[in-house]
Amino acid sequence: MLVISIKKADYIGDYQIKFTFSDGVERLIDFSGFLISAKNPMTKKYLDKQLFGKFTIEYGDIIWNDYEMCFPIWDLHEGKI
Hints:
Elements: E1 6-13, E2 16-21, E3 26-30, H1 32-37, H2 41-44, H3 49-52, E4 55-58, E5 61-64, E6 69-70, H4 73-78
């Protein structure tokens, strides 16, 4: 089984991030719909674009503020959140 990881994530602007995965697949994902419809205040706070842009890549996964917000890698690889 192929293990997929995020090799690179570039913040494009607004709520868009361009991902490059370990298998060479690239995806541009817009998180705006997810953030706008979120009910959890811990997630809603990432509507602040400066805060949203402060993600890190750790162990091949994208995270915000020590796993306060994260997404399944396979979903990102498939282009959905």
